[in-house]
């Protein structure tokens, strides 16, 4: 699956679950993180470093979405495979 298609589908899945996806410049002073899932004012938010490469953005989205129960949610087979593989 093309990285840009995977990103679009992962973002759509997150939004479908009511999760906001934000791309922000994350300071790289003492830590090297590319983002993750956070609770902000009672809502789930996925923050991704805007400078991250496509593969890192995909990895962050996949890791953030793993804790959610997707058994009753339609997810394209290639995307479900990606979510189960990582």
Q: Which structural category do the helix and sheet elements fall into? A: alpha+beta
What is the CATH T-level topology? Zincin-like
Q: What is the highest CATH level, the class?
A: Alpha Beta
Radius of gyration: 13 Å
Work out the helicity level.
Answer: 40-55%
Work out the oligomeric state of the chains in this entry: single chain
**Which regions contain 5 or more consecutive residues with pLDDT less than 50?**
none
Just name the CATH architecture: 2-Layer Sandwich
Q: Kindly state the number of beta strands.
A: 3
Spatial ordering of strands, largest sheet: 1-3-2
Major sheet size, sense and barrel closure = 3 strands, mixed
> Quick check: average pLDDT?
90
Order of helices and strands: HEEEHH
Query: Number of DSSP helices?
Result: 3
Can you tell me about this structure?
- The chain has 86 residues and is an alpha+beta fold.
- The chain has a single domain (3-85), classed as 2-Layer Sandwich (Zincin-like).
- It contains three helices and three strands.
- Strands 1-3-2 form a three-stranded mixed beta sheet.
Brief characterization of the structure:
41% of the residues lie in helices and 21% in strands. By secondary structure, the chain is an alpha+beta fold.
SSE layout:
Elements: H1 3-16, E1 20-24, E2 35-40, E3 43-49, H2 54-65, H3 77-85
Parallel strand pairs: 1-3
Antiparallel strand pairs: 2-3
Helix pairs in contact: 1-2
Annotation keywords:
3 strands, Zincin-like, 86 residues, alpha+beta
């Amino acid at each position: 699956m093309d990285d840009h298609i995977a990103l679009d589908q992962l973002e759509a899945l997150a939004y479908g679950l009511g999760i906001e996806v934000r791309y922000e410049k994350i300071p790289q002073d003492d830590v090297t993180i590319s983002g993750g899932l956070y609770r902000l004012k009672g809502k789930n938010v996925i923050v991704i470093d805007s400078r991250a490469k496509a593969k890192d953005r995909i990895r962050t989205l996949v890791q953030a979405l793993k804790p959610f129960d997707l058994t009753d949610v339609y997810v394209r087979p290639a995307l479900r495979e990606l979510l189960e593989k990582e």
